UniProtKB/TrEMBL annotation:
Protein name in UniProt: DUF1611 domain-containing protein
All copies of domain D-glutamate N-acetyltransferase-like C-terminal, residue ranges: 143-336
Gene3D superfamilies: NAD(P)-binding Rossmann-like Domain, P-loop containing nucleotide triphosphate hydrolases
Ranges where the D-glutamate N-acetyltransferase-like N-terminal domain occurs: 57-137
InterPro entries found in the cross-reference section: DgcN-like, DgcN-like_C, DgcN-like_N, P-loop_NTPase
């Protein structure tokens, strides 16, 4: 998966590469999704990983200290954690200072600004290193206008957070390009932006400008051009539905793909809130999406079947496809099910 997945990123960034991936002290793999995303989709830009102790979480890259990574050619340490609230805890800061002392820049996609911590700001100044915050939206976003734009758009939506919207969008983009379609991957979260080299962090945009940010991210294009847009959150998530709705209205997708983890029953991190059904997500997405694109349709469903055997995953996708009347596939596994999903999206 090391091939660069996008040709023309929006709002280009210049990030120092290659990376050392910092896993912090997280013990839940879902909170290290930035590190996993970079390891899976930009492995050629990563030299290793660095964790604080034996956490049990690993991307499979070589374990390295910041000094070892610098000696191996790393230019920056990326905070590979996306924790609740996007915070930089005190327990990490000594390690971040060590990385700066070793000659690495620090790249962060968290809400906390790196330079807001005096010890980091001072270490960066002393070592002539950069503190790079990716989760900063561009300054010239306007409110959305709802005007129908030229070109075609696909948006990934979810039954919840952290279950495959980014991976699905990247896989679909790669498949579109392989079939000769003109397509760009449009990143809307910190990990996607680091992979693509550009994008807009939608959850850092003021709510009044959310739809406008999505319009800016996916501007007018040639009639046959596809923007494959990374989804965020879920319309059914009590914490993050506002981001999901603004992204839906501003993206005005022609096609959407529902992303789902069939083993999950409750909203991640929010006790008492059951996961919605795929059918409920399809229905609500169409009803809300029609505001800015009356022709919106569901192209199919993406299942995250990691942890399942290939036989069980294939049987589940086939059964759900029959039940829903739509293609159902795990894009990471690919195979014929995914080809059918791509076919239906491109209709």
């Amino acid at each position: 998966m090391a091939e660069r997945p996008v040709r023309q990123p929006a709002d280009d960034l210049s990030l120092p590469q290659p990376y050392l991936l910092f896993l912090g002290d997280v013990t839940e793999p879902s909170f290290a999704k930035t590190a996993f995303g970079l390891a899976d989709w930009a492995a050629d830009k990563c030299v290793g990983e660095f964790a604080l102790g034996e956490t049990g979480v690993s991307t499979g890259l070589p374990e390295m200290s910041p000094a070892e990574a610098a000696a191996a050619g790393a230019k920056a340490m990326v905070i590979g954690v996306a924790n609740p609230g996007g915070v930089i805890p005190e327990a990490w800061r000594a390690a971040l200072v060590d990385a700066l002392e070793a000659g690495l820049d620090i790249v962060s996609g968290l809400h906390n600004r790196l330079a807001s911590f005096p010890e980091l700001a001072e270490a960066a100044r002393r070592n002539d290193r950069r503190l790079i915050d990716v989760r900063v939206p561009p300054p010239d976003i306007t409110v959305g206008n709802g005007r129908k734009r030229s070109g075609k758009r696909l948006l990934t939506v979810g039954t919840d957070c952290a279950l495959g919207k980014k991976y699905t969008a990247l896989a679909l983009h790669r498949a579109f390009v392989a079939r000769g379609e003109e397509a760009d991957f449009r990143a809307t979260g910190q990990t996607g932006i680091m992979i693509a080299g550009g994008g807009i962090p939608m959850d850092a945009v003021i709510s009044d400008f959310e739809a406008g940010a999505a319009e800016k991210l996916s501007p007018d294009a040639a009639p046959g051009h596809w923007d494959v847009i990374e989804g965020q959150g879920s319309l059914f998530n009590p914490a993050y539905a506002a981001v999901s709705l603004g992204l839906l209205h501003g993206s005005q997708p022609d096609v959407f793909v529902v992303c789902h983890d069939p083993r999950r029953t409750m909203i991640l991190g929010l006790e008492g809130f059951a996961l919605p059904s795929v059918e409920d997500v399809i229905d609500l997405t169409i009803r809300l999406g029609r505001l800015t694109n009356p022709a919106i349709r569901c192209g199919g469903v993406s299942f995250n079947t990691s942890g399942m055997s290939a036989e069980d995953a294939g049987a589940l996708c086939a059964a759900e496809s029959e039940r829903l009347g739509l293609p159902v596939a795990d894009p990471v596994r690919g195979e014929a099910n995914f080809d059918r999903l791509v076919d239906n999206c491109l209709l």
